[in-house]
Amino acid sequence: MCTALTPTRVGSPSAEQAALLDRDGYLLLRGATPKAWREPLRRAFEAGVGTGDQWGVPKAPGWRHALVDLNPTVRETCRLPALLAAAGRMLGGPFFLAQVEGREPLPGAGRQPLHRDGAGLHAVSAMIFLDDYGPDNGATRVVPRALDQGDPDETLSLTLAGQAGDILVFDADLLHGATRNASGARRRSLLLNFLPERERNAQDAYRAIRDVRMDNGELFTP
Questions:
Q1: Which of 47, 175, 188, 222 has the fewest Cβ atoms within 10 Å of its own Cβ atom?
Q2: CB atoms < 10 A from the CB of 156, how many?
Q3: Which InterPro entries match (predicted)?
Q4: Which CATH number fits domain 21-221: 2.60.120.620, 2.110.10.10, 1.20.120.530, 3.60.20.10?
Q5: How far apart (Å, rounded) are the C-alpha atoms in residues 139 and 65?
Q6: pLDDT digits (tens, 9 = 90+) for 97-139
Q7: What pTM was computed for the model?
């Protein structure tokens, strides 16, 4: 459910980060998740993994999914100042946290075609990595905005690599997709979405289908 809106002012990214966001449509925040939070986040992920029938709609095969949006550490991670500053830069106006869930590509699976989370939708997505990631265990590949020619083109994509605690924040209209988890190493992450406040009523109508249990009434303003 959604309680009364409570405006929360967010900061601004550094000039360098703002320039990267404007140019590329994404930003990789290295080590942004506090080290002390990472193991509790992994425990929250494991506690949230269940059977396929726990979801309102079927999930894509080849992935492990986790319900995590009621966990307080997960919620605080979604409110990290650097993450909110990047989202505010891209959205440019009042916004809210619409959804957060856990996802992990299973061994030998997980590859996605290049796609856009919200083609034509003014929204921001983010991935909070709970394990080290790279091309061997299902890391995300992206097509920087400046290279995007409209149609998906694998030759233009860059595969990201980094460590647990990194956060990838990106325009939901950015071409991206996971790679195959060839090594079978763990690659857990939290996937979340920020939407403009004007989209709140439409999103609230689909809370059950989207498995949103949290109170998402907090309003963020750049």
A1: 47
A2: 16
A3: Phytyl_CoA_dOase-like
A4: 2.60.120.620
A5: 16
A6: 999 999 999 999 999 999 998 777 899 999 999 999 999 999 9
A7: 0.94
